[in-house]
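User: structure tokens for this one?
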Amino acid sequence: MSIFEAYESGEHESKVSHFAAIVKLAIIDGPINPEEETVLKRLAVKLDVSEEEVKPILKNPGKYHLIPPYSLEERIERLHDLWKIIYADHEIEEEERNLIFKYAIGLGFTEEKANEEIEKCMQVFDGDMEL
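Assistant:
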């Protein structure tokens, strides 16, 4: 296996783990609703996660460990993706807020930076701020 192939494999594995994190957020408040399903389909395409990969993730998203990307820009983009699924039903519950904080820490943000980014995302998704 070449270095390029190893890098591509690791990058895809990171995307699959990110998609699993999104699914965990989608199911935290109950079954996946139609709005969440639409967002999940879009994000699977964006992340290049195939239908064959999506099926086992939907059945057991907990078996996938979060693999954060290296760049700050990619980590912020991943946090933004997670917010898309939270706001698919136009509300955020306390459990979701706690889980998004844990994911922000898992993505490599400090507690202070995690809270700051979460507040920014809430403002963006509430319509108080533009991207």
